[in-house]
Design brief:
The chain is of the alpha/beta class. The protein has 11 helices and 13 strands. Strand 12 and strand 13 form a beta hairpin. Bound molecules: acetyl coenzyme *A.
Length: 356
């Protein structure tokens, strides 16, 4: 008997599912104790005000963001058995590109042997990885790409003034990436919101080095190539916008805090993370936290969280990813996880906290 329209299952839309995750952090550490020798600060202040204990720093002549991103992407391809020629698109979210042009995405492709595909950078400060996921998922959903690599990577140490205690304690270096593929399992990227307000520029920016104020001996002497942040103002906006965007995603997907398995927040400050979780009604044991060991790695924080927590993730888990950063920018992405992380391929114990 033919199924009636009422009983026939609805066609499940093709969604972009995250099918693998990988990461890379450089081996050199910068601890709070070491920073306390460099500037007037203390382990107690940094731990209490930010939650950070240490961060990884990329050292080595001529190594930029692309180096860490390429390490992460190589591992991703290796662990999934993906050949470089199978990748259809690569997007790199970064605020510290190797150079103004070509894009860091172009350089990563060349380094890992991916040729003749579209690749580009997304610049949305700390929200860039979520902006990129949102863009990438649409290439998959509309059928124009089957395998998309999204990488978030930053060498924040290249734009940090290590004489400024207000910023130098916050940031670290690293890269994380995911593979997106089409899925009709019902799992994948369910919803996303990306937002910005350029009036926030005054509170968080890098003054020189762009077309408005090109690099000169004077800009270097005046230390204008470093992150300028008015911490307290940014903190206020970050708390408000993270709460707003998570609230919006939850409302329009009929989600309550107790229905979400994992909050995956951008890691800028432990207190912002705790406040966001509290407003969502989520206990901290359902919140991914890596800030103590990586600091704020800008575009890499969220994929590094997914990489670290991968063994705990199960197919069908509901994840809410949320970020806030310079611009101002903020974003939220609702994901249903597509695979059991405990069964994900391992790279012979390599790949975590070191080279693959
Ligand atoms: N060690 C000791 N004292 C310090 C340090 C330090 N490292 N840094 C600042 N202080 C002092 C200040 O000088 C100030 O002293 P004063 O009262 O004598 O003037 C005091 O501590 C308080 O300073 P605040 O800036 O008000 O400290 P706050 O508690 O706000 O913490 C922080 C500062 C950690 C930067 C916080 O404001 C924050 O996390 N802001 C948001 C960061 C963020 O979300 N950024 C967005 C993403 S980054 C991106 O997009 C690139």
């Amino acid at each position: 008997m033919a199924e009636s329209l009422e009983t026939k299952p609805l066609t499940i839309p093709v969604r972009a599912a995250i099918t693998a995750v990988h990461g890379y952090v450089p081996p050199d550490l910068l601890t709070n104790a070491e920073l306390a020798v460099m500037v007037d600060t203390s382990d107690a202040w940094i731990t209490e005000r930010t939650g950070i204990k240490e961060r990884h720093i990329l050292k080595g002549e001529g190594l930029g963001t692309s180096h860490m991103a390429a390490e992460a992407v190589r591992g991703l391809l290796q662990k999934t058995g993906t050949k470089p020629e199978e990748v259809d698109l690569l997007i790199c979210a970064t605020t510290t590109p190797d150079m103004q042009f070509p894009s860091t995405a172009n350089l990563i492709c060349d380094m890992v042997g991916i040729r003749d595909i579209g690749s580009f950078d997304v610049q949305a400060a700390c929200s860039g990885f979520l902006y990129s996921l949102s863009v990438a998922s649409q290439f998959i959903a509309n059928g124009t790409a089957r395998k998309v690599v999204v990488v978030g990577a930053d060498k924040m140490s290249s734009i940090i003034d290590y004489t400024d205690r207000a910023t130098c304690v916050l940031f670290g270096d690293g890269a994380g990436c995911v593979l997106l593929e089409p899925s009709d399992s019902g799992y994948g990227i369910m919803d996303s919101i990306i937002r910005s307000d350029g009036a926030g520029m005054i509170h968080l920016h890098q003054k020189a080095g762009g077309s408005r104020m090109p690099a000169s001996a004077e800009t270097v002497a005046n230390r204008l190539h470093y992150v300028h942040q008015e911490g307290a103002a940014v903190y206020k906006y970050a708390i408000a916008r993270m709460a707003e965007v998570t609230g919006q995603i939850m409302a329009r997907n009929n989600l309550r805090g107790d229905m979400i398995d994992w909050l995956v927040p951008h890691q800028a400050n432990k207190r912002i993370i705790e406040s966001t979780a509290e407003r969502m009604g989520m206990p901290m044991d359902k919140v991914m936290v890596t800030i103590h060991k990586y600091g704020n790695v800008t575009n890499a924080t969220i994929p590094l969280c997914l990489w670290d927590y991968e063994p705990q993730l199960k197919a069908g888990n509901r994840l809410l990813l949320a970020a806030f950063g310079g611009g101002f920018t903020w974003a939220g992405v609702y994901v249903t996880w597509a695979y059991d992380g405990a069964k994900a391929p391992k790279l012979n114990g390599k790949g975590k906290n070191g080279k693959i």
